[in-house]
Design goal:
With about 800 residues, the chain is α+β, with helices and mostly antiparallel strands. The radius of gyration is 42 Å and the shape is elongated. The relative contact order is 0.04.
Amino acid sequence: MFSIRYHTSPVYYLRSGACIISAAFLIPAYCFAANTAYDDLIMEARGGDRAPLFNYLVQQEKSTTLTPEQVADWLQVSSWAEDDEQTLSVWQRYRYSMAVPARGQIAVARTLRNQKKWDDSLAVWQSALRAEPGSVDARSGWIMTLADAKRHQQALTEAKSWAQSEPGPDRDALVAYVYHSQGKNWDALLAASRADEADPQNKATKSTLVSALSANRVAAPALELSGSDSATDPLARRLELDAAAEIVRVAFTPARNEDERFLVADKALARYDRLIKEWQNVPAARADLRRARVDRMGALLIRKRTEEVLSEYQQLSADGQPVPDYARRWVATAWLVERQPEKAEAMLTEIYSPPVGAPVPQPTPEDHQELFYAHIDSENFDAARRQVYAVIKDSPYLRRIYGSPTPQPNDYWLLGQTLLTQYQVATNDLPAAEKLAEHLARTGSGNQGLRISYAAILEARGLPRAAERELKLAEVLEPSNLELERQQAYVALDLQEWKQADELTDDVLARSPDDTASLRLGRIRDVHKMSELRISGSQGIASDSPVSGKHDFTWNSAIYSPPINDNWRLFTGFNFATGEFEEGKGINRELAAGAEWTSRNFWAEMEVSGHNYGDGQKIGGRLSGWHDFNDSWRIGGSAERLSQNTPLRALRNGVSADGGEAYLRWYQNERREYQLSFAASHFSDGNDRIEYGISGKERLITTPRFILDFVPGIGGSTNTKENVPYYNPKSDFSVVPGLSAEQIIYRRYDTVWKQQMTAGLGSYWQKKQGSGAITQLGYGQRVQWNNVVDGGLMLTWDKRPYDGKRERNIAIAFDLNVRF
């Protein structure tokens, strides 16, 4: 940066920390006392030992009146020593009692300028110019002080006028200084380049060019031109740091893949490691060493070494010195990566909501997104909503750019709309999110990211084929886009396109192996390739039901192998059921083995089972499957020998059943679906049973942590035979509208703990028995952990009539799904 404390010609004034003495102001011998002793004191002062001269002048001042030349000597030497207090004190004593020579006035003007007393300094500069109109130093100092005092137009006019009347590198250097004071660093660089071109061997113009390059963040060429040793030269250390910081900034630039950014970040880390090693034992470099450690965190973040970023931050904060906001943003990003969003949210909020009176930084779009996702991941939805609507409020669709008559699209408007979409997704308002995302994708067809976001929402709503079509359209713009491939991989997994999902995931991981989004995709794919254990069942607590009996217990389990050749999985399972009836205890044991096959739009399972429920072993079998026509329609069914749905009481009495079922499902989205089912069973005692039903779901209430669904159910059955030892009404029919509620108790990324409540009140009709009320209640809790564990436990209570008698049933139902 350009410094403001100078003691020489304009070229040297542009040099940070320069303190070179102009030859034009070597103090002439005839200005001093005629004796040789005084000359010796002057020579010592020029060599740096100024105390003897000061002592002499103080004693001389007490015994006799000093001459104007001696006062000028005193002012000059104290100015060289940067003793502002002494310079101004001498000036105040003699300014009114004698005509101080111009060289003394120049020293005073510089001192006043160093103390930023612009008006006083300008007055003295003008006095010196009146005394010596041709003084180069006085004119240069006056123009630079005009620039320091923000009298930009006058300073620029005077500098240019002088450069035109007396061209030369020194004048161009002065113009560069004036431009820099106005913040016009590129103009300053142009003027400095002209000065260097006019006199390439001039060290002063070279220094001016170095300063101009540095001010424009052209750090590497500035460092090369400086040619100084950073271990001893403060300017060289600053340029080294600027050059390294430039590499870090380049590493943050989006690239085709992570490897390219990693190469740049590694280059920056190697440079910082070298500088830290060189400077760690240099006391004068302590501040530069700290800056190197601060800036190094950016390269560590690019390299995904977030734990080291946080460790370095803790060490830097331990000494009580503040860490710059730009580095704290990196720390907040590291907190987010390490899944500690509360710390990231607190840090970012502190940065962008400073105390009253403190400057408020202008967040970039990336900063807005970091803060937004910190709010979302912390479940602070109110803060996220306030942030989104604040961005929207302050961001009109079009903005006017100075000098352009045509309004331009506003990037911050698009940012606000995009964040609003993500907020709606996070708060379960998927219909609004889909509507907004579709509008943005259709009206911004050239924006690939908008179409990808729209596809992601379609997938979240359970519409993977519609999402696939949108992604195909987005593919036209940039087929190799990482975010596009990630979303295509998720959709492929939903559609059971296993090979496509593998190819996309492998490519994403190869190109961005340490990116958080890529690692999550890889994790989901890895979970799919794991083995799977499924367990479900129930335990009766108090039951009078003729269907399940007293003290009933059921257990169903199956373990699946990892996928074989993508489409196949082998499984084996064990099922058990027991219950006590009037005629005795019923027990059913079942061992099963089979294979599952999945492909796009299809699922099928084939099973062979061995049953033991009375006398000897029985061999059964099952074939199940479904086919999706599109996102909305699915048809499915199964056929079984020794059906698992055979009542335990029938098995207890030696009656088995074969059967099959079919169903048709219509799915609109996560808020509405209905299913029509039909089942037929043939019992070994000659009874034929037909069952039918309609079930559905209608979303009533949705909040970020709570949903309430209306779940109607209609069902009935007919049997051809009566007087059998199991519950077997000639015909019956039930209508049970119900409510199902789910509330999230705790949620942190892939770990969710929630409670579930169900309630139903309806009517049951049985032929020859009339009708009666059905009452159902249920309460349970469910835990999902790390995408590999999903388990729940629910206490249920229902009361309904059987053969005209109302019976109650209290039971605990459980289920568990584990991937390993």
